[in-house]
Design goal:
single chain, four-stranded antiparallel β-sheet, 4 strands
Length: 179
């Protein structure tokens, strides 16, 4: 369950506000989304290794009863770093309930969204390992649970799109010489 939180957040990855967050991803610039991810006490672990960050790929979509999400590396040689980072992210996520409020205030929309979903009794998650990462499936057992998962999928996609845009903009920046 915690791995779901971490690995999805790794994507750097809402169309609507997450329940209770007061934060609308649509109102964020790509740079603000990147800052949220970089400063998140959980997700920032994914930003520590630039080579890993550049190899991460994310996809998410609604299903009939929820959503499916894939987080993976596009470079097989990065799998050890991916798995190590996922484990550290899981460890950090486990500490969210006891985090100081100032740290909770820094959680990115992905973490807040996952924590909101995990608090529901009508939502379940499965993690399915893949050769290059992890697939996560969320299933709702009530119409309200399905709706919450569909909203999360849309939000996750929007946040991921902002992160990807920020990455593309950064790649276009001229390199600074250290002469």
């Amino acid at each position: 369950m915690k791995r779901v939180l971490c690995t999805v957040a790794a994507i750097m990855l809402a169309t609507t506000a997450f329940a209770g967050t007061g934060s609308k991803v649509d109102d964020m610039t790509p740079q603000q989304a990147m800052e949220k991810m970089t400063n998140c006490p959980v997700c920032s672990v994914w930003m520590a290794d630039p080579a890993l960050g550049a190899s991460i790929r994310h996809g998410v979509g609604a299903t009939k009863n929820g959503y499916a999400e894939v987080l993976m590396t596009n470079n097989e040689s990065m799998m050890p770093a991916f798995m190590k980072t996922a484990a550290e992210c899981e460890k950090r996520a486990a500490g969210i309930p006891t985090m100081a409020q100032d740290q909770k205030d820094k959680l990115c929309p992905m973490c807040v969204g996952h924590m909101t979903l995990m608090g529901r009794n009508d939502v379940t998650f499965e993690n399915i390992p893949t050769p290059m990462g992890i697939m996560m499936v969320g299933t709702g057992s009530t119409p309200e649970g399905v709706k919450a998962l569909h909203e999360y999928a849309a939000s996750s996609k929007a946040f991921g799109d902002k992160m990807a845009q920020a990455g593309m903009e950064k790649a276009k920046e001229p390199m600074k010489s250290k002469m």
